[in-house]
Automatic annotation (TrEMBL):
Compositionally biased tracts (Polar residues): 662-693
GO CC field: nucleus
Renumbered residue ranges of the record's region Disordered: 659-764
Xref: PANTHER family: CLEAVAGE STIMULATION FACTOR SUBUNIT 3, RNA CLEAVAGE STIMULATION FACTOR
InterPro entries in UniProt: HAT, Rna14-like, Suf, TPR-like_helical_dom_sf, TPR_rpt
Protein name: Suppressor of forked domain-containing protein
Any one GO BP annotation for this protein: mRNA 3'-end processing
Length: 764
């Protein structure tokens, strides 16, 4: 049966396979309890907070009246699974067990109700349990007047607790409470009801807000380790929003009751986010902030049982114990980390050394370091950490130097260790030993692993050396690293990049950012020019290959300047693009335009002349022609976006299927179509119908606002757009200079309404 928990390729066991778990649980329902028990135990060992599996398990024992086994299961699950359905199952069992015990049984049941409500009474779905408890109290026999009075008092107290809790049944409970008080004493009821009316109103208001957060939560979700799925992230955020809501104490109740609700919310959250270390940590730190450090310790202990491999939670737990002075408890946590020799890391050794230095002193830390350096899991980081601690905390430079020297024999092949040792010697201002260290390390390290060491050596000489030593180290660096480069001779050449490296300081540079970008581009181009084919360069195409050129000072490798083989464009011959003057190859019209094959010849023959432009306009629909002719003159390929958008909003281009002509209902009646194109050119002039140029005024007088607010209504008008005043004037001048008719009326633009402030847009 456990084979159901197999998943993935190759039969790899996935104990958190939710689908397999559901299949097993459904199979267990059909089996006798003796055979189903091992299945439930297997499921609950994987999903210890799955209340639905616990409920299914315990109900199987209740069905065969095995009370002892039922009690054992409840003792294992109740406090970790604060779910209403499971707890109602518990109270049902208690009432069944005590129903024949008379007065003693009633008292035991009453205690069970109080116990239940103390844990899950603040649940939004706890209303039925409150009502069941009240019904139970009312049914208790009262042989004397005193007992009757006590019973009424008990019922009243339960009502008063229930009506201030934001549950689904809070309004029903309030109505029942009103009836109860009026049935006992109308005179007393008036005062009590007025006292609790405001509390009830507050609970009802909070319930509406609380329900919004509750509705986002999936209550059937099983607790599995995070996989990063969107559903898991949504559930995690939903729980965090609910917790934040409860922490805000929206009902403004007393601190004790508010903290109880937050605790309850965290406990419910952990039923579903059981494997999330951040939830455990937040829960523990919240307890510590509220003054309940003991509760925080218990949460951490539970967290380590849930996530025994979480090193991070152990450090957090040890930190809490150390902060409250429980040094021995904190030490045991560190020792538990070190006990598992398989999972011990250098970080564990380092943190324990620091802990011992803080709590027991220098000698204890030194003693452990001498033992830890013999461990197979000890890396150079342990030596660096202890030497730094001795130098910074103990102020013992001699000890730190000895530790670095001891580690040098073992970690000479580690560039990271060399750099840390060099930094230490620089702090001592021991430039002589720094140079000796670099020379010793570079004589052993292979070139491909010595890049960072050479870089630091160069930086050191730039700070501590003179010009001669600086240039000498840079040249040696180039010679050493040229062996790893594809073009070794090129790497040996001096470049302006070297000067930038020598004469920059922190974020200060001896040239502008533009120069830096240029140098970076040139260096990259020189580095990759051999990867580009020669014909490609001769054709003037990009010589950058498939890689992306760097931007700014992004590399420390010095390469040669661009070769003369690279063909660069002659920028002195660059001109502003003008399609009316460009003669190029023939091109086909868009598929959306119903043009014949003869159009290609017309376009090719008429390129650069007004005749070609006229032929292009003939194959376009009238609305599209009207839109093109309204486009303003621009200088270069970048038009004024506001002007284009204004014209586009005023245009009436029909929306139809691509490749099909617009229907008559989609076409807008226009005036005579101009025979020129409004394609932007290199000058501020436009072509009229005869091909001559008319220069447009850019700074004409703006019309008055009242002229802009005129509207023309049409039977098919559904959308209106108001262009900017300056744009309106400009468009009016364009149309006037070309004699273009108003698309709506057929009159001249100067006398029409198309540019008087608003233009109607015809829609289907």
């Amino acid at each position: 049966m456990a084979e159901e928990l197999k998943g993935g390729s190759g039969g790899t066991t996935d104990i958190y396979n939710v689908e397999a778990a559901e299949i097993l649980a459904n199979e267990a329902l059909l089996l006798p309890i003796s055979e189903a028990a091992p299945i439930y135990e297997k499921l609950l060992s994987t999903f210890p907070t799955a209340a639905k599996y616990w409920k299914q398990y315990v109900e199987a024992y209740m069905a065969v009246n095995n009370d002892e086994a039922t009690k054992q299961i409840f003792s294992r699950c109740l406090l970790n699974c604060l779910q209403i359905s499971l707890w109602r199952c518990y109270i049902r069992f208690i009432r069944k067990v005590n129903e024949k015990k008379g007065t003693d049984g009633l008292e035991e049941t009453k205690k069970a109700f109080d116990f239940l409500l103390s844990y899950v009474g603040s649940d939004i779905a706890s209303g039925p349990i409150w009502m069941e408890y009240i019904t139970f109290l009312k049914s208790m026999p009262a042989t004397t007047v005193q007992i009757e009075s006590q019973r009424m008092t008990s019922v009243r107290k339960v009502y008063q607790k229930a009506i201030v809790i934001p549950t689904h049944h809070v309004e029903q409970l309030w109505k029942e409470y009103e009836s109860f008080e009026n049935s006992v004493s109308r005179a007393l009821a008036k005062g009590l009801l007025s006292e609790y009316q405001s509390k009830f109103n507050s609970a009802k208001a909070v319930y509406r807000e609380r329900k919004k957060y509750i509705d986002d939560i999936d209550w059937n979700m099983l607790a599995i380790p995070p996989t990063g799925s969107s559903k898991e992230e949504q559930q995690c955020m939903a729980w965090k929003r609910l917790i934040a809501f409860e922490k805000g104490n929206p009902q403004r109740i007393d601190a004790t009751s508010a903290n109880r609700r937050v605790t309850f919310t965290y406990e419910q959250c952990l039923m579903y986010l059981y494997h999330y270390p951040d939830i455990w940590y937040d829960y523990a730190t919240w307890h510590a902030k509220t003054g309940s450090v003991d509760s925080a310790v218990k949460v951490f202990q539970r967290a380590l049982k849930a996530l025994p491999d979480s090193e991070l939670l152990r450090y957090a737990y040890a930190e809490l114990e150390e902060s409250r002075g429980a040094i021995q408890s904190a030490k045991k946590i560190y020792e538990s980390l070190l006990a598992n020799s398989v999972n011990v890391t250098s970080l564990t050794h380092i943190q324990f050394i620091r802990f011992l230095r803080r709590t027991e002193g220098i000698e204890a830390a030194k003693k452990y370091f001498l033992d830890a350096r013999k461990s197979p899991s000890c890396t150079y980081h342990v030596f660096v950490a202890y030497a730094t601690m001795a130098f910074c905390l103990d102020k013992d430079a001699k000890m730190a130097h000895s530790v670095f020297e001891a580690g040098l024999n073992k970690f000479m092949h580690e560039p990271g260790y060399i750099l840390e040792y060099a930094d230490f010697l620089c702090r001592l201002n021991d430039d002589r030993n720094v140079r000796a260290l670099f020379e010793r390390a570079l004589s052993i390290l292979p070139p491909e692993e010595s890049v960072e060491v050479w870089k630091r050596f160069t930086q050191f000489e730039q700070t501590y050396g003179d010009l001669s030593s600086m240039l000498k180290v840079e040249q040696r660096r180039k010679e050493a690293l040229s062996r790893t480069a594809e073009d070794g001779s090129s790497a040996l050449e001096n470049t302006l990049y070297d000067v930038v490296s020598r004469y920059s300081f922190m974020d200060l540079w001896p040239c502008s950012s533009k120069d830096l970008d240029h140098l970076a581009q040139q260096e990259w181009l020189a580095k990759n020019m051999n990867k580009v084919d020669k014909p490609t360069l001769q054709n003037g195409s990009s010589a950058l290959g498939s890689e992306k050129a760097p931007v700014g000072l992004a590399t420390n490798n010095k390469v040669s300047p661009p070769s003369t083989k690279v063909v660069l464009p002659d920028t002195s011959r660059m001109v502003v693009y003008d399609p009316r003057q460009t003669k190029g190859p023939e091109f086909s019209a868009p598929s959306s335009v119903n043009s014949s094959t003869s159009t290609l010849a017309l376009l090719g023959a008429g390129t650069g002349t007004t005749q070609g432009i006229d032929e292009i306009l003939k194959v376009l629909s009238p609305p599209l022609v009207a839109f093109i002719t309204q486009l303003p003159a621009v200088k270069g390929p970048s038009p004024d976006l506001d002007v284009v958008l204004s014209i586009l909003l005023q245009s009436s281009i029909p929306v139809g299927n691509i490749g099909k002509p617009a229907s008559s209902s989609q076409q807008v009646s226009t005036g005579p179509v101009p025979s020129t194109s409004d394609i932007s050119g290199s000058s501020w002039s436009r072509l009229n119908q005869n091909g001559s140029a008319n220069r447009l005024r850019r700074d004409g007088q703006l019309g008055k606002r009242k002229d802009l607010e005129r509207q023309e209504e049409d039977d098919t008008t559904t959308v209106q757009s108001r262009p900017l005043p300056q744009d309106v004037f400009r468009l009016r001048q364009i149309r006037k200079s070309r004699g273009v008719s108003n698309p709506q009326t057929g009159s001249a633009a100067s006398g029409g309404s198309a540019f008087s402030g608003e233009q109607s847009i015809s829609t289907d």
